[in-house]
Write a structure and sequence with these properties.
By secondary structure, the protein is α/β, with parallel strands linked by helices. The protein folds into 2 domains: about 1-185 and about 360-380, Rossmann fold, CATH 3.40.50; about 190-355, 3-Layer(aba) Sandwich (Rossmann fold), CATH 3.40.50. It has helices at about 15-30, 45-55, 55-60, 75-85, 125-130, 135-145, 145-150, 160-170, 190-200, 220-235, 250-260, 270-280, 295-300, 315-320, 330-345, 345-355, 365-380, and strands at about 1-5, 35-45, 65-70, 100-105, 115-120, 155-160, 180, 205-210, 240-245, 265, 285, 305-310, 325. The strands form 2 sheets. Strands 3-2-1-4-5-6-7 form a 7-stranded parallel β-sheet. Strands 10-9-8-11-12-13 form a 6-stranded parallel β-sheet, sandwiched between helices.
């Protein structure tokens, strides 16, 4: 098959959820599929093209069934063209006839009647929790027309049962049209000596907890800080590390951190540093208000550390009995869980032990499922 894939989501220096999803799917497709041909579509400046080529250089170097089409036009202009339905469809721009086009996240797209479209929806937080988005993002989500994407796509992949339920609720979509394929996680194998070596420049305290994710209101970082404030009064030898790129209203979070010497903002870090900080930490605090999946929960479990999680949306589905659950609207519960993890040695020990047996999907397994679904979509469209 000739499969087109929209990789506009890779046009960023600091990959997060969706960018990591696209990158890891491509990397693993390249390892397991030498039969189908993949035509990758991106757009933007020469700088963006260079950035994406650098990200995918190992794929291009070792595979002759991957091709890259980059449109030298800004994403904003391309989005406007697609919104106004001017000019040819994206599928007409490829040098071959495509058997399938995959949108691995919601994006502007002009449909044609001949090419089947597979759409991945990670979450519907922009419909479910609109107050967590800036006016600019609200306008973007309105214009992208998610209802049209859901209606016109031949099939939909989603990353959790929770998101599937949301799609069915908001759009009355037939359950059979939506397939849940959980993502894998990207990990860096590490031991204590290596972790200590990698983190030597951070001047860490012996004990610390971590938050990993974008700095934005939806992630509920202010409640983490409030809960940790109370915890730190009783356990002053422990610090909190905030790790992640800057999102909407991040300054409010940084202002809160500024005068607290026991809370440190490390910004966006690379995979090996993240692995080392997970490995040496006391646990992950992640009481997000809304998530379609929740990669950090599984990453933390892979490194055998306890997880304090919100009980909202998809998170209990992903982490199951491995999580210590809190009400994200109640910072006192975060404090209580931190205190419990500190004082109840048997609880901590049991969570670390059970983490070692927790089933975590690998990208290679999940990508094989995605490839098989490509075949199903093509077969059912004939």
């Amino acid at each position: 098959m000739n499969i087109g894939i929209d990789i506009r989501g890779l046009a960023t220096k600091s990959r997060t959820g969706v960018g990591n999803y696209i990158f890891n799917v491509l990397k693993n497709i390249a390892q397991v599929d030498k039969v189908n041909n993949y035509y990758l579509l991106s757009s933007g400046s020469k700088k963006i093209k260079k950035l994406i080529k650098k990200e995918l250089k190992n794929i291009y170097k070792t595979n002759n069934n991957f091709y890259h089409l980059h449109l030298r036009i800004s994403n904003k202009i391309l989005n406007l063209i697609l919104l106004l339905k001017i000019g040819p469809t994206l599928t007409k721009l490829f040098p071959v006839k495509l058997d399938l086009f995959w949108l691995p996240n919601i994006n502007f797209y002009k449909f044609d009647k001949k090419t089947p479209v597979l759409l991945t929806i990670h979450d519907l937080s922009f419909l479910h929790s609109k107050n967590f988005y800036s006016l600019k993002r609200k306008i973007w989500h309105y214009l992208v027309n998610i209802r049209q994407l859901v209606t016109k796509a031949d099939k939909i992949i989603t990353v959790s049962q929770n998101t599937r339920r949301d799609i069915m609720k908001f759009f009355l979509t037939d359950r059979q049209k939506i397939k849940v394929i959980y993502p894998g996680i990207e990990v860096f194998k590490i031991n204590r000596r290596k972790a200590q070596e990698i983190t030597s420049g951070y001047n860490l305290k012996k004990k610390y907890y971590i938050y990993i994710g974008t700095l934005e209101p939806r992630k509920n970082i202010l409640s983490i800080i409030k809960g940790f404030d109370k915890y730190h009064k009783e356990y002053p030898e422990t610090e909190l590390l905030i790790i992640g790129g800057k999102g909407w209203l991040y300054r409010d979070i940084l202002r809160k951190i500024k005068n607290r010497k026991y809370i440190r903002d490390l910004g966006y870090i690379n995979t090996s540093e993240k692995a080392a900080l997970y490995y040496l930490s006391q646990g992950l605090i992640w009481p997000s208000f809304y998530e379609g999946f929740g990669f950090p929960l599984l990453e933390a479990t892979y490194y055998n550390i306890p997880v304090i999680s919100s009980y909202k949306t998809s998170l209990p589905e992903i982490i199951k009995d491995q999580g210590l659950y809190v009400d994200p609207f109640n910072s006192a519960e975060i404090y209580q869980m931190l205190k419990m993890l500190t004082e109840d040695k048997e609880l901590r020990k049991s969570l670390i032990t059970s983490a070692q047996d927790f089933k975590i999907f690998t990208w290679k397994q999940q990508v094989k499922e995605i490839i098989n679904y490509f075949k199903d979509v093509k077969k059912n469209s004939n």
